[in-house]
Design a protein that fits this description.
The chain has 425 residues and is α/β, with parallel strands linked by helices. It has helices at residues 10-21, 64-72, 115-127, 138-145, 149-163, 172-185, 194-208, 250-256, 267-274, 342-356, 409-424; strands at 2-6, 25-29, 41-44, 47-50, 78-80, 85-89, 101-105, 189-191, 212-214, 219-225, 228-234, 237-240, 243-246, 280-288, 298-300, 307-311, 326-334, 363-370, 394-396. Helix 1 runs parallel beside helix 7 and helix 4 runs antiparallel to helix 5. The two termini are 14 Å apart.
C-alpha cells in the first residue's frame, strides 16, 4: 500500500512514521523549505525558539503524543515538568499585580473562594466525572454554579494558555474532556531538544523505513478517481497513492479537490467548513540572565490584561539557550475582532510582563503572531470535525482535526491515532 502525506508538520510526520512502520510506502510533500511546520525550532541569537507551539507537551511523558512517539520508535526524552502555578494578587480584590502577588499551586485554585463555594467545587469535582455538563460554554456553566469572578478569570487564563480561546468560546464538554485527560495522563513535560527534537526523531523513523520526505514541493491538486482519493499533482507530475493524508486542515484540503466536492452531495460538508474559526494568539519570547519563572511548570497569570501564562523551558533543557541564559515564552490569546489590531495587543502584552516580572531584567527576543493561515489552531478546540472527509481514502490530521479533549499537540496525536485506526484497523 502507498500513502502520500501532504504537509510535514507534526500530524503529517506522525502519520508517515506510523504507516511506514506498518509497511506502507510513504511519501511526504512539504511546500516549505523546512519540516515541522509550527512545531520546530528557530535558531535566533543562539536561542532555540519555536515556530509555533511551545517546547512543552501538555501531558508530558505519559500523554497521547509521547505514547505515539513510543509506538513508532521515535527516540525522544520527555521530562515531566513541575506543577502548574497560578499568580494571584497579594491582596484579594486587587485587579492586577501592581501592589504585589503570590503564587499558589494549580490544585489550590478553590482556596480563593468562600467556604461555601469551596464545598460546592469539591462536590462538582466528584459529581461531574460521571455526569458531565453539556450544551453551554465553560463560562456560562461556571456562572451557573458559582457567583465569583475569580473562577472566570482562572478559566480564561487556562483556556487562553492551553487553547488560545476564552472560556465563553469553549464548549463545556471539551473542557471536561481535557480535565479527564489530565487525570488520565498527568501534567506537562518538556522534550529534550525542544520541538525539533520530536521532529528529527520522526524523520529518522520515516527515512529508516524507506519513506521519502520532500521539501519545497507543493501539492497543487488531490486526484479523485471513481469517487476515491487516487493521488496528487506536484509540479505538474502525477503521484499515485492508495491513501492521502493531509496535514493542511479541512478547508485547505477541500480546495485541493474542489472539483470532486462540488454539487449538492457535499453541500453540508462545504457549509460546515465555512463556520470554522481558527484560534489566534501572540507569543513573546524573553531572554534573561536570571530565571524569570523559576520552575519548569506553567505560570498562569489570570490578573493581566492580555498575557495568559508563561513557561521557562531552560529549567529542564539549558541547551535551548546560550550558556548562562534563560528562555521564557509567554502566550496571549487574541480575540477574532482584535486580529486587525495586533500592535495594540502586543503593547498590552508587553505592559503585562512588566507587572508579571517586576524588577527583572530581560530582553524581548522575538514576538510572533498566529492567525488566519498561520494560526494557533486551524480549528478552535471543541470545533474539530474529525479526520474523515467525504472522499474515501482522503483523511485530515493536524491542528484542524484534533481528538476530543486533546490540548494542542496532544489533540494532534489523538487525531492521528484515530486516523491510523481507520486505515490500519
Amino acid at each position: 500500500m502507498k500513502t502520500i502525506v501532504i504537509g510535514a508538520g507534526l500530524g503529517g510526520l506522525l502519520s508517515a512514521a506510523r504507516l511506514s512502520n506498518a509497511g506502507h510506502e510513504v511519501e511526504v510533500f512539504e511546500r516549505l523549505p523546512i519540516t515541522g511546520g509550527r512545531f520546530t525550532n528557530l535558531n535566533y541569537k543562539g536561542f532555540q525558539l519555536s515556530s509555533g507551539a511551545f517546547h512543552m507537551l501538555p501531558h508530558g511523558p505519559e500523554g497521547p503524543l509521547a505514547r505515539l512517539l513510543g509506538e513508532v520508535g521515535a527516540e525522544v526524552k520527555i521530562v515531566r515538568s513541575e506543577q502548574t502555578i497560578i499568580r494571584v494578587p497579594l491582596i484579594k480584590g486587587n485587579p492586577n499585580y501592581v501592589k504585589g502577588f503570590k503564587d499558589i499551586p494549580f490544585i489550590e485554585f478553590p482556596s480563593l473562594l468562600s467556604h461555601m463555594d469551596r464545598l460546592k467545587i469539591a462536590f462538582l469535582i466528584v459529581s461531574t466525572r460521571k455526569n458531565r455538563p453539556s450544551g453551554v460554554t465553560l463560562e456560562a456553566w461556571i456562572k451557573a454554579q458559582v457567583k465569583d469572578e475569580w473562577l472566570v478569570r482562572f478559566a480564561d487564563s487556562f483556556c487562553g494558555w492551553a487553547l488560545s480561546m476564552k472560556s465563553d468560546e469553549v464548549p463545556v464538554e471539551e473542557v471536561f474532556e481535557i480535565i479527564e485527560n489530565m487525570y488520565r495522563f498527568g501534567g506537562t513535560g518538556i522534550p529534550i531538544g525542544g520541538c525539533k527534537g520530536v521532529i528529527d526523531a520522526l524523520e529518522a523513523v520515516i527515512l529508516k523505513n524507506g519513506g521519502k520526505i520532500y521539501t519545497d514541493k507543493e501539492v497543487s491538486k488531490i486526484l479523485v478517481e471513481n469517487g476515491k482519493a487516487a493521488g496528487v499533482i506536484v509540479e505538474s507530475k502525477k503521484h499515485e497513492a492508495d491513501f492521502i493524508i493531509s496535514n493542511l486542515g479541512h478547508a485547505a484540503t477541500a480546495l485541493l479537490c474542489s472539483e470532486a466536492l462540488s454539487g449538492e452531495v457535499h453541500a453540508s460538508y462545504l457549509k460546515m467548513l465555512e463556520t470554522f474559526q481558527p484560534s489566534a494568539g501572540i507569543k513573546i519570547c524573553l531572554a534573561a540572565d536570571e530565571p524569570l519563572v523559576g520552575h519548569s511548570g506553567v505560570l498562569l497569570t489570570p490578573y493581566t490584561r492580555r498575557i495568559n501564562g508563561a513557561n521557562e523551558v531552560t529549567q529542564v533543557d539549558p541547551k535551548l539557550a546560550p550558556p548562562g541564559k534563560h528562555l521564557t515564552m509567554c502566550h496571549q490569546y487574541v480575540a477574532p475582532e482584535n486580529v486587525k489590531n495586533l500592535e495594540s495587543e502586543i503593547e498590552m502584552g508587553l505592559a503585562d510582563l512588566k507587572e508579571v516580572f517586576p524588577g527583572k531584567k530581560y530582553e524581548v527576543l522575538l514576538i510572533q503572531s498566529y492567525h488566519d493561515d498561520w494560526p494557533v489552531n486551524r480549528a478552535a478546540s471543541g470545533m474539530d470535525p474529525g479526520n474523515e472527509t467525504p472522499i474515501p481514502g482522503l483523511y485530515v490530521v493536524g491542528d484542524g482535526a484534533k481528538g476530543k479533549g486533546g490540548v494542542e499537540v496532544e489533540g494532534v496525536a489523538l487525531g492521528v491515532a484515530a486516523t491510523m485506526n481507520k486505515i490500519l484497523g
